[in-house]
Write a structure and sequence with these properties.
By secondary structure, the protein is of the alpha/beta class. The strands form two sheets. The protein has a six-stranded mixed beta sheet with strand order 6-7-8-3-9-10, sandwiched between helices. Strands 2-1-4-5 form a four-stranded antiparallel beta sheet, covered by helices on one side. α3 packs parallel to α5 and α4 crosses α5. It is globular, with a radius of gyration of 18 Å. Helices cover about 35% and strands about 25% of the residues.
């Protein structure tokens, strides 16, 4: 059974002039639990819109989206908020850390939002920071960390609530090649060891090559869907 399922999904932006832009155009997609999938395409191809629709950050104009047994297209604000906090971990290109807060304080936020105690959130934050190799940076402020360390903090924050799905939007975009490779290796390890479904949006084919399935988007449409060993994934049109 798919953990992510999109059926005839379109996202259309309409201008006051009456013109419209289809950021997503009749997308059909299924992703199984535990898969590591890369979505590639040029800027403006629709890949980030796809990620936002799957993560419940945006609503499709047409079609249905089911993620981790949640119907995103009919869910209300409260259900979507709970879904994003519990089921999905988000990792962004720009980290989105509170620069004057410590690494631990940044990582604790999702647990505190879910009404965990401060002590439990702190304990889990320290454990997650250890998992990403930052045991010695727990009490350092984000503005004292390197870009690679900031992204590791962001990953620790994304996984603190044990989400079933990780959505990463250009997670190596602000990193050098060596550090970027380390971050993708870390995400791949989390995917393998914790069976967390991992979906990475990237324009970097070297990053995409580390996934076990590569989906290419152009002009809002899936134009190819291929497993690492060359096996094609059929998408209904």
């Amino acid at each position: 059974m798919a953990i992510i399922s999109l059926r005839n999904v379109s996202k259309i932006y309409r201008a006051a002039t009456g013109s419209h832009l289809a950021a997503l155009d009749n997308i059909n997609l299924e992703i199984a639990p535990g898969e590591f999938v890369a979505v590639i395409g040029q800027s403006g191809s629709g890949k980030t819109t796809l990620l936002n629709v799957i993560g419940g950050l945006d609503q499709p104009t047409e079609g249905s989206v089911t993620v981790d047994r949640h119907d995103i297209t009919t869910a209300g604000d409260a259900e979507l908020s709970k879904f994003r906090n519990k089921s999905v971990g988000f990792i962004f290109q720009s980290f989105h850390l509170q620069q004057l807060q410590t690494a631990a304080a940044n990582v604790m936020v999702p647990m505190l939002f879910a009404n965990a105690s401060w002590a439990e959130a702190r304990r889990m934050a320290e454990a997650r920071l250890a998992l990403v190799g930052l045991s010695d940076k727990i009490n350092q402020r984000a503005n004292q960390l390197s870009a690679g360390q900031c992204q590791r903090v962001a990953i620790a924050r994304a996984i603190i609530n044990n989400p079933t799905i990780l959505l990463a939007d250009e997670p190596t975009g602000n990193l050098d090649i060596h550090t970027g490779a380390e971050i993708i290796s870390l995400l791949s390890k989390i995917n393998a060891e914790q069976s967390t479904t991992l979906l990475i949006v990237t324009h970097d084919r070297d990053v995409a090559s580390m996934a076990r399935r590569i989906i290419t988007i152009d002009d809002g449409r899936i134009i190819s869907d291929t497993a690492a060993k060359g096996e094609s994934h059929e998408n209904k049109k």
